[in-house]
Amino acid sequence: MLVRGMSLKLRITIVFTLIVSFILGFFAWFIYFFSKETQQNLFFERLEERVKTTANLVLEKDELDSLSFKRVEEIFADELPGETIEVYDSKNQRIFFEPHHTAKELKSISVLEEIHEKKITKSVSGTHQSLGILYNDNEGNHVIFVEAADDVGVQKIISLKYLLLASSVVAIMVTGLIGWLFASRLVKPFTRINSGLKEISEHNLSHRLASEREAQEITLLVQTINELISRLERSFQAQKTFIANVSHEIRTPLSIILGELEVVALEKNEETIKAHLISFREEVKRLVRLSEQLLWLAQTSRDKHEIIFSHVRMDEIAFEAVHYITRIPKGNRKINIEYRKDPVDDHVLMVNGNADLLRALFINLIENALKYSSETKPVDVWIDYTASEVIIIIKDHGQGIEQSEIQKIFKPFYRSHQSKSQIAGSGIGLFLCKQIINVHGGQMNMESKQGEGTSVTLYFHQA
Q1: Residue 64: pLDDT above 70?
Q2: Residue 419 near residue 398 (C-beta atoms within 8 A)
Q3: Are 63 and 137 in contact (CB under 8 A)?
Q4: Is residue 325 domain-shared with residue 211, that is, in the same domain?
Q5: CB environment 357-385: b (16+ within 10 A), e (fewer)
Q6: What is the DSSP string of 410-429?
């Protein structure tokens, strides 16, 4: 098992060497085994020739002419190293034994019966090989045993074994060296990538890694890292812009409050003091509202798995949002909540979501509709559903939004030219709404016509 913390170069070298060593070892074993089997089979063939020669000399001599018999004797005289020959008749009696000067035990009845059954037996013991064959002639069945030592063949196999072992050791060493060089070349692009990444910090996120003209996977890795750095750069830039805007939005009401307090401290007229206090109260409300939005925004920025979700009814959330709105409509303005069709049961209006965030979503959208509508026109909230979705539509009858600005208004702290001059706000509400929708996996569409108003349609998956 590879040790943790081991360098990639060393890991590749070890794995490469092990794989090649295994392959080399397998082939070396195969060559050794095949050569040994071949050598033994060749020697068994020689023993079989000795059996045939013995049969001609001992059992067939009366059928051979003098010239043939003499030739067989010459062949028989060319004996193998450590050779012994035994011939048994059909009654399991040994009728021939060579060499005569050595003493050798008779074969057991079980061995002889095995040869009668199998016709042939072979055995190997060290350097010695023995062959027993059942030979049929006109005098009956005879068993001929030939045993000899294949000293030359065994020595060749031993030499081959040491040669293969030495070759394998050298091959493994060469493989390790080649593996190290191969691994060094393989990890070189990663080393360059690592060096390039060390040069990048939060102060120079505009720097990018050089494109590697290597394997497609490495090129793709560099592209992915550069894309990640680009996203980080945009995120840092957005964070800086966000902090600057938040600081400005907080500083403005605080400056106004401070100015009002200084004026009130010097003012004697009660009516003037009252007017300053009213202005003071509005700025405090503005500051509280901004704080609420920032808190909600911080919650949407958390990991989705950290946000508590439950089954909630969207119509109940809409009614609660209207109740929570602190900016009470003036004059004849109303908030009309209607069902497009009656819900057949609770399930059709249920979604899996966070009640606080969904309430903040409706509060922001309805307050926006109130701000941009005339005081004599109502704000309509329609609740609808399909087989798989819950649909909420919020429509005002205000001045509308220019088409060129519909996508821009979802950016943090962006405000249209009309709203900057006519209506107070921080420009964070719609950005917050978009974040809440994304957290819930929903969809928000906005349609607007100049002079007719704006409608926002929300789509949520049913629970």
Answers
A1: no
A2: no
A3: no
A4: no
A5: bbbbbbbbbbbbbbbbbeeebbbbbbbbb
A6: GSTT---HHHHHHS---S-H
The pLDDT value given to residue 71: 64
Which residue, of 256, 285, 301, is where some domain finishes?
Answer: 301
Phi, psi of 428, deg, nearest 5: -110, -15
Asked whether 237 and 202 are in contact (CB, 8 A), the reply is no
Residue 12 pLDDT grade (very low, low, confident, very high; cuts 50, 70, 90): confident
Compute the Cα dihedral for 40, 44, 50, 53 and give only its sign.
Answer: negative
Same domain, yes or no: 297 and 394: no
CA distances from 425 to 102, 206, 353, 360, 400 (A): 121, 33, 27, 16, 17
Structure tokens given for 40 = 């033994």
Sheet architecture: strand order including 389-395: 335-339, 379-385, 389-395, 453-461, 443-449
Which segment, 165-179, 204-218, 276-290, 367-381, is predicted with the most confidence on average? Answer: 165-179
The C-alpha angle 151, 125, 129, rounded to 5 degrees, equals: 60
Determine contact, residues 426/290, Cβ cutoff 8 Å: yes
Residue in the structure block whose two tokens are 């070759």:
167
Domain that holds residue 371: 305-461
The Cα 300–Cα 438 span in angstroms is 9
Q: pLDDT class for 117, splitting at 50, 70, 90?
A: confident
Q: Are residues 295 and 310 in the same domain?
A: no
Look at the pTM and tell me if it is higher than 0.70.
Answer: no
Q: How confident is the model at residue 457 (pLDDT cuts 50, 70, 90)?
A: very high
Q: Is residue 58 part of a domain?
A: yes
Examine the domain organization and report whether 290 and 311 are in the same domain.
no
pLDDT digits (tens, 9 = 90+) for 360-378: 889 888 888 888 777 778 8
My answer on whether 227 and 281 are in the same domain is: yes
Residue 261 resides in a domain = yes
Q: How confident is the model at residue 352 (pLDDT cuts 50, 70, 90)?
A: very high
Instruction: Provide the H-helix boundaries in 267-352.
Output: 270-300, 314-324
